[in-house]
Design goal:
With 401 residues, the chain is of the alpha/beta class. Helix content is 43%, strand content 25%. The longest helix is centred in the C-terminal third of the chain and has 35 residues.
Length: 401
Amino acid sequence: MANTELLEALTMLEKEKNISKDSMLEVIENALLTACKNNFENADNMKVTIDPKTCEYHVLAEKTVVEKVNDPVTEISLADAQDISGSFNLGDQVNIELRSQDFGRIAANAAKNVILQKIREEERSVIFNEYVDKEHTVVTGTIQRYIGKNISVNLGRADAILTENEQIKSEHYEPTDRIKVYILEVRDTQKGARIRVSRTHPDLVKCLFEQEVAEVRDGIVEIKSVAREAGNRTKVAVYSTDEDVDPVGACVGMNGARVNAIVSELGNEKIDIIEWDDNPAKMIENALSPAKVISVIADSDEKSAKVVVPDYQLSLAIGREGQNARLAARLTGFKIDIKSETQAREAGDFLDYENDYEDDYDEDYDEEYEDYDEDTDSEYLESTEETGDADDDYEEGKSES
C-alpha cells in the first residue's frame, strides 16, 4: 500500500529545498534501523525495504526456526513458523514484519530526530554547493540589517556578510535596498554556509562589464586589467580579439549607455576605459589618460618608466592626491616617474626627439647626397670620355642655340 503522506512530504522537500528524494529515503531507512536498535537489544537481524515509487516501507526481522525459543528477537518456534507457512522446518529463516506500533515512544522519537537532523544537514549541503559554485561572481542581494559595522545581505537562500572593509565609504545602505555584490569566499561551517561579499573588489567591475557588455561576455573583448579605488575612480584596460570591433566603444555603448549603467550601480564611481597595448610605453601612455604624454621610456626588466608630459598637463597626469598616476601604475604594473617638460630638461632626462632626428637626418642626407653626386659625376665622365657623346651633345646644343 502506497504511503501517500510520506511521498508528498519527500516531493515537497525535493521541490522547495532541493533535497534529493533518494537521499531522504536512505535517511529514513537508517532512522528505522536506529529505532530497531533502540527498541530491541540486537538489531543485526533487522532490515528495512522501501519502494522509491510508492514510499511503502517494511521493517523485517529475520528469525531462525527452533524447537525452543531462547531469544525471541532472533528465534521463532516451529509451531509459530508453521502458522505463517506450513513449509517451514527447523533451521529455516523466517522474515517477520514489525509494525511501527511495535516501536516504543523513545525509539520513535529517536528516528524522528535522526530524520530532522539529516534534513538540516542536507539543506546546508545543498546551499553550500549552490553558492560555492558562485564564488568569484556577482549576485544581487537585499540589505537586511546592520550587525555592528557589518551588514547582513540576503542572497535568496542564504545570508552573506558585507564587512566594513568591503563597503564603499561613500555609500549608505538602508534595509530592503537591493545591491550587487561580489562573492569573495564561501565556507562550510556547522551553522551552515558562511559567505563573505564585497563592494570594493576590482573584479566586481569586471563582472559588471561581463553582464552589461555582450562582447565581453562572448569573449570578443577581453578585460586585461582593472585598477580601482572604490567609490572614486576605476581604470579598465580592454582588448579586442576582432579587428573590426572597437573594444573601448563596445564597453562605452551607444551614448555611453553601457558604462553609465555600471557607473550608476557603483554609486557614480568614475570609470576610465582605455585600450590595452602590448607595448609597455604605449600602454603607460594610454593608462595616464586623459593627460597628454610627450615621451615614455619604459624598462621592462625593472618594471619602471619615466614619463614626460607638457607643463600644463602635469597636475592632470598625477591627478588629485596622485590618484591618476597611482591607478596607472596598478593597471600597468610599472613604477611610473612623471615629470613636466621643464623638469625633465633641467634634470637632463628629456630627449628632444624631433631636433635630434632632424639633425641626424640632415647630416645623413648631405653625406649620401655628396657621395651620390661624386659617384654619379665620375661615372658619367668616364662613360662620355669613352664614347664622345658628351662633346657631341655639347656641339649639337651650341649649334641649335
